[in-house]
Specification:
about 70% helix; mainly alpha
Length: about 230
């Protein structure tokens, strides 16, 4: 197993007690699965953006008050210099696959948003990374992978815990495709964050794939208003 663990994913120096680990495991399940399931069963009322921003703010406050959290986690510009080439290379492959798949299977969808609503597409490009991507990365990467490392360790179980929670929350959109795509994306973003320790790197990669989805013609699968 690789040992490329960034300071952002390391557990506290003092090992937690069994009772503490059990408490954190229950908290993880209730917060990332129980609360989401309750929201879905209630009909996914209202926009998810306000609660997302609130939770991200609380998560950021928790992290900033912890003396063992590396302050470089919040941006991590230096890590971007080493990660952007492999990140863009993988994204380019995914973009090519997505365009070809839609061109063959659903050509009417291809580039639908930029073709039919270019101003809305520009707004998504500008606002989505700021009001959706970065808050999600604070919660599902920086917070989750710090707080629950005592439960899952610092290896692939922690990456899986982040990916599962990230994929499951997309049940609010009411379709299986959004869950499957974000499950894969969550694994990729958690793995990148674990290696780089940079929210900037994880957010940049998340934004690239999110904007790809909205650009190629799959955005309605990630639109809360379409959940009904």
């Amino acid at each position: 197993m690789t040992t490329d663990v960034s300071p952002a994913a390391r557990p506290p120096a003092t090992p937690p007690t069994v009772a503490r680990r059990g408490y954190l495991a229950v908290e993880y399940a209730l917060l990332f699965f129980g609360a989401v399931l309750g929201y879905v069963l209630a009909g996914s009322p209202g926009s998810p953006i306000p609660p997302l921003l609130l939770l991200a703010g609380l998560a950021a406050l928790y992290l900033r008050r912890r003396p063992d959290v590396d302050r470089r986690t919040w941006w991590g510009w230096a890590a971007l210099r080493t990660e952007w080439v492999p990140m863009l290379r993988l994204w380019a492959v995914a973009a090519g696959v997505a365009v070809v798949a839609l061109a063959v299977l659903a050509p009417e969808r291809l580039f639908g948003l930029p073709r039919e609503a270019p101003l809305l597409w520009v707004a998504v490009v500008l606002l989505y990374p700021l009001f959706s991507v970065y808050p999600q990365e604070v919660i599902f990467r920086a917070f989750l992978m710090r707080r629950y490392a005592p439960v899952f360790g610092t290896g692939w179980w922690l990456v899986a815990a982040s990916a599962l929670a990230f994929g499951f929350v997309h049940l609010i959109f009411g379709n299986l495709l959004s869950v499957l795509l974000t499950l894969a994306g969550g694994w990729l973003f958690a793995r990148r964050y674990r290696r780089s320790g940079s929210l900037l790197v994880a957010s940049a990669e998340h934004a690239l794939y999110g904007l790809l989805v909205f650009t190629v013609g799959l955005g309605d699968f990630f639109y809360h208003g379409a959940a009904g």
